[in-house]
């Protein structure tokens, strides 16, 4: 597969280059494959549907063709996904897609584990280790640390601001042994980021060590997230005639979004033939993308802290990929857009539990609430011209997607993406529903492990000294 650059279509690189460099150094643009090959129609119409790992293998194949042989790709997928995504019905026309069955209980495991194994694969003939440096304000660090833990040829150094992440998050990234180490920095997240950025531009250091990042914009994190959209839409398509007697359902994926990587992966799955009619882009108070869809003006802004903090992004980096792949008119036809504030998020957790018995986390709750509002007539209001047109008022924003008719005629079904386990946000969930979500074993276990993080000052010289004596 050839990959090009969102800022310069004349750029042509292979998969290895796109993965190992992360983004285009020359233009600062993001890598995108030049095409999204459709899966075979016989594969798409199989009943029962293919397994998650079969879907993953078939979807990944064209993107790594001529660079990773089939048997090696099979091994990468087997090793990356000892867990799967699970489809859970919560009412007759709504399913929750649980993406938290990986080791860190959040959807980023899907992307990070595939990235770690492809990087290790491409690094296999090198004599020296590849050193990954990551600054984190919480969730990315644990997903990346866990994904690379014990992966050969690579080590990871995670920097986080001491005292500024939750105790559970800290346990999740500071308790690894071996090739993943954590530094608790006496400073802010921005200080951590600055240390990493300075290291990347330090010539002296770059001559000594092979450094790399594990950024969320890496194409090898984006592609594997398309697997679970394909898989779940095939599962739901086969289930719906039994669950709700709808003959030809329009499947809508409702995606709680921050950087819009997850949603971009959904677009890739749809291009490859997933039976998905459209998407709801659901955000918190950081509603840059809903505003763009409603008004046509894209205004990046500083982020605002909310209860769904992994979605607190004011300048979503994958806007660049979405607007490379589609015109604004196409986006408006595929997407509905929605945002809610913290009050709405709490209400989402509470109402979801009350109406369905399902305990949802604050991120999934934003998506659940969007779908609940759509089902309860908000889309029809928009169609009648009675909807909300003020972008600063929470709710469905003024855009009628091509699939709106299916909502009115009641043959749409929703897949709500649940991106984190509710126990990761225990206090918010408990405050909303009056009971604690149960703690999965793998989170419980991590809480009792000894903290191995080392202290670090925020000045670059101390950091560099540490790197030189520890890498
Ligand atoms: C990262 C994250 C998101 C946002 O995903 P994007 O791909 O950045 O849109 C949503 N929920 C959780 C729990 C996350 O960790």
Task: List its traits.
binds pyridoxal-5'-phosphate; 7-stranded mixed sheet; 471 residues
Q: Numbering strands along the chain, what is their spatial order in the largest sheet?
A: 4-5-14-10-11-12-13
Please give the count of helices.
20
Distance between the amino and carboxyl termini:
34 Å
The Rg value, from CA coordinates, equals 22 Å
Ions and ligands? pyridoxal-5'-phosphate
Average pLDDT, to the nearest integer?
95
What's a quick, concise take on this entry?
This protein is of the alpha/beta class and 471 residues long. The protein has helices at residues 15-21, 41-44, 52-64, 70-80, 108-122, 139-148, 167-174, 189-200, 203-208, 219-243, 261-271, 288-295, 319-325, 328-334, 342-356, 362-383, 404-408, 426-433, 441-447, 460-470; strands at 3-5, 8-13, 31-33, 86-91, 94-98, 130-135, 154-161, 180-185, 210-212, 250-256, 278-283, 335-339, 395-396, 412-418, 454-456.
Would you kindly provide a written description of the structure presented here, covering whatever features stand out?
This protein is an alpha/beta fold. Helices cover about 45% and strands about 15% of the residues. It is built from 20 helices and 15 strands. It has a seven-stranded mixed β-sheet with strand order 4-5-14-10-11-12-13, sandwiched between helices. Bound molecules: pyridoxal-5'-phosphate. Pyridoxal-5'-phosphate binds next to helix 11.
